TrEMBL record:
<dbReference type="Pfam" id="PF01408">
    <property type="entry name" value="GFO_IDH_MocA"/>
</dbReference>
<dbReference type="Pfam" id="PF22725">
    <property type="entry name" value="GFO_IDH_MocA_C3"/>
</dbReference>
<dbReference type="InterPro" id="IPR000683">
    <property type="entry name" value="Gfo/Idh/MocA-like_OxRdtase_N"/>
</dbReference>
<dbReference type="InterPro" id="IPR055170">
    <property type="entry name" value="GFO_IDH_MocA-like_dom"/>
</dbReference>
<feature type="domain" description="Gfo/Idh/MocA-like oxidoreductase N-terminal">
    <location>
        <begin position="3"/>
        <end position="118"/>
    </location>
</feature>
<dbReference type="InterPro" id="IPR051450">
    <property type="entry name" value="Gfo/Idh/MocA_Oxidoreductases"/>
</dbReference>
<feature type="domain" description="GFO/IDH/MocA-like oxidoreductase">
    <location>
        <begin position="155"/>
        <end position="216"/>
    </location>
</feature>
<dbReference type="InterPro" id="IPR036291">
    <property type="entry name" value="NAD(P)-bd_dom_sf"/>
</dbReference>
<protein>
    <submittedName>
        <fullName>Gfo/Idh/MocA family protein</fullName>
    </submittedName>
</protein>
Length: 319
């Protein structure tokens, strides 16, 4: 079993601690949190071993799970990689693309693996249809959340929209050509609501909206491609595939038939793929253990996360 340590014991850090403790692939060694009082309370309540310094934690484990604010990612990740330890780090990978590039180079030199916590890749609804998304040409994503002070240290693009940027980059096999965006700061010092239009070299267009000041939560994406429409509800974990095929010569009475101006008839087929329930955070952590143990490429690489960060920062630069 891989010895794991968690850096950062805030809201998400406590979830990671619990899941690593339950996992069959990791031995949770302990955690370090800069807030000594918080660390003491968590150690007393849950019985996790509390380390007095990051260096002591790093020395005791094979893998460090970094769950700290984004602005601290670069410095702590450098320490982990420099010590030759594998790195799981929450999204966004770093604050700047340049920092991410440096971490990627260091990891390659040290021969350690890194994975980034873009957890929506492990959302069971997205997993159920991702292999059916083939050459989408229009994508629309809405990620809306009620206000929560946690996360407002970064713009909503890095807090929320980057999830959809990463998911879209994983299915659109083309380079970004052009970005237009707008953002508004309503309650925070950084934008709380943003919209971005991303155009790809192959003609695909993605329209993304993210808000952290909404009255309700929503996490939906729609993918349009030749003869198919695919919807993914990341929040309710359901998905739908609507396909169009050439209509048979004698369709049954209940068939839905569309006819275009040229007289071509298409039949509409509805498919609701089965969604296997999972704990997405546990699955991403255990997939990283598989990558380490089997010497394979992590599902969400540092390079992919750096690309998502680069696009996110280009979106922010348009405000």
């Amino acid at each position: 079993m891989l010895k794991a340590g968690v850096l950062g014991a805030g809201h998400l850090g406590k979830i990671h601690l619990k899941l690593l403790k339950e996992s069959n692939q990791y031995e949770l060694v302990g955690f370090f949190d800069e807030n000594k009082e918080n660390a003491r309370l968590i150690a007393e309540e849950f019985g996790y071993k509390k380390f007095d310094s990051l260096d002591e934690l790093i020395a005791a484990v094979d893998m460090v799970d970094v769950v700290t604010p984004t602005l601290s990612h670069f410095e702590v990740a450098k320490k982990v990689i420099s010590a030759g330890k594998h790195l799981f780090i929450e999204k966004p990978i770093t604050n700047t693309f340049k920092e991410a590039q440096e971490l990627i180079k260091m990891a390659a030199e040290k021969g350690v693996k890194g994975q980034v916590g873009h957890v929506e890749r492990f959302n069971p609804a997205f997993q159920a249809v991702s292999d059916r998304i083939e050459n989408p040409m229009f994508i629309e994503a809405h990620r809306l959340a009620e206000f929560n002070p946690r996360g407002t240290d970064v713009p909503v693009v890095l807090d929320l929209m980057i999830h959809d940027i990463d998911a879209i980059l994983s299915v659109v096999k083309s380079e970004v050509k052009k970005i237009n965006a707008s953002g508004v700061s309503v309650i925070s010092d950084t934008p709380d609501i943003a919209n971005a239009r991303i155009e790809f070299e192959n003609g695909c267009v993605a329209n993304l909206t993210a808000s952290r000041i909404s009255m309700k939560n929503m996490r939906k994406s729609r993918f349009f491609q030749r003869d198919a429409y695919i919807s993914v509800d990341f929040l309710d974990k359901v998905c739908e595939v609507v396909k169009m095929k050439d209509a048979p010569e004698h369709p049954d009475d209940f068939a839905m038939i569309l006819q275009n101006a040229e007289g071509v008839k298409k039949q509409i087929y509805f498919d609701n793929p089965s969604v296997a329930p999972n704990n997405a955070i546990l699955q991403e952590l255990e997939s990283f253990a598989d990558a380490i143990n089997n010497n394979t490429t992590p599902i969400v690489t540092m390079e992919q996360a750096a690309k998502a960060l680069k696009i996110a920062n280009q979106v922010i630069a348009k405000f």
